[in-house]
Amino acid sequence: MNRLLRPLAILTAFGALAFSTTYAAPAIAQSKEVVIAYQDMVVPWRYAQATGEVERATGYKVTYRKLGSGADVIRALASGSVQLGEAGSSPIAAGLSQGVDLSLFWILDNINDAEALVARDGSGVTSVKQLNGKKIGVPFVSTSHFHTLVALQAAGVDPAKVKIVNLRPPEIAAAWERGDIDATYIWDPVLAKVKKNGKVLTTSGAIAKSTGKATFDGFVVDRKFARENKDFVDGFVKVLAATDANYREHKAAWTAGSAQVAAVAKESGANADEVPASLALYAFPTPAQQASNVWLGGGAQSGAAKSLAATAAFLKAQGTIQTELPDYSVGVDASFVQRAAR
Fold first, then answer.
1. Cα dihedral sign for 300, 219, 265, 17?
2. Residue 250 neighbours by CB under 8 Å, 6+ apart
3. What is the separation of C-alpha 337 from the centre of its chain, rounded to a whole number of angstroms?
């Protein structure tokens, strides 16, 4: 989970290609197509997304579809309208519990302090305990929803005595401006906006440290698509790894006026001036870290499988899902990061 300052040699080599302005597109005709669902999260790989690196690296025609929440991404994956997508650990756990045929193959980020519970100025709320009887806006079945419930219970507040309303990020921003909600648990770019006239009560990093219930964002893929398009997913993982390595090694160059940050802002809908600070809130594990037991490696003992199991147990206790799987490693595929780490 710690950031490494030195990327693997293979990632450095790939990064030199991935971010070269003279990198030529492969001679392979784009006869295969893929639809990738993404959200408004502020993450480094938005630069590769904006500059067509996935198309060049794989030869596939790529269509990007922006969706409002991880739950929306899982539903789109289940319907077959997308083949890969970004989702938090909570919707991934819910999707697996409900029988969606997906695999988690890449940790997009360790959420850390990039999601936070914020009370609106004027709400009279200065601690989690004071949320009793208040209205909180969160995207349901998201990592923020999960940690909202964890935070309330840890503070001795009965979630049933709090009005938790299901709002997508843009709806949260609007409700916040109108004064319709007292608090929200959300991520950037909306998090940066609500912090301007709100008080941070806790963060996902703080909750993970105090309760052991960590959250993360990941990339999931339809299992059948992954089996039939292994080379595509391998190439895609290399692009993700190269972008993260570029950010880790050249963080000082990712300024508000840089091409990288401009691309991240454009794709996520964030303000470019706020992107560098937003990126700094996350941790981005390398392929070697992801291949270890800390994240995707180790079967049922992998960090991801245990986190998904704990999340599912909590969601079931809250009535959000009806069933739990005996082993969530069935939805974790470490083979792609293992190959990328060689």
1. positive
2. none
3. 17
Residue corresponding to tokens 């997906």? 102
β-strands 135-138, 183-187 pairing: parallel
Are 205 and 19 in contact by the 8 Å Cβ rule? The answer is no
Whole-angstrom distance, CA of residue 228 vs CA of residue 223: 9
Strands (E), the chain: 33-38, 61-66, 84-88, 102-110, 115-120, 135-138, 163-166, 183-187, 198-203, 216-222
β-bridge mates for residue 288, sequence order: none
What average pLDDT score do residues 96-124 get?
97
Question: How far apart, in whole angstroms, are the C-alpha atoms of residue 306 and residue 259?
Answer: 38
Q: At what angle do helices 143-154 and 303-317 cross, to 10 degrees?
A: 70
Number of CB atoms found within 10 A of residue 55's CB: 16
Q: Which two tokens stand for residue 189?
A: 């770019």
Q: Where are the alpha helices (DSSP H) in 120-161?
A: 143-154
**Residue 310 is encoded by which pair of tokens?**
């704990």
Q: What confidence score (pLDDT) does residue 320 get?
A: 87
Q: Is the dihedral angle over the CA atoms 202, 208, 209, 212 positive or is it negative?
A: positive
φ and ψ at 7, to 5 degrees? -75, 160
Angle at 287 between CA 284 and CA 289, to 5 degrees: 75
Number of other residues whose CB lies within 10 A of the CB of residue 8: 17
Of 117, 182, 105, 176, the C-alpha closest to 143 is 117
CA distance 238 to 10: 9
Strand-strand pairing, 115-120 and 33-38: unpaired
User: Kindly report the CA angle at 92 between 118 and 271, in degrees rounded to 5?
Assistant: 40
Say if residues 189 and 270 touch (Cβ distance below 8 Å): yes
Convert the pLDDT of each residue in 116-158 to its tens digit.
999 999 999 999 999 999 999 999 989 999 999 999 999 999 9
* Calpha distance 16→245 (Å, rounded): 10
Dihedral of alpha carbons 262, 267, 273, 277, sign: negative
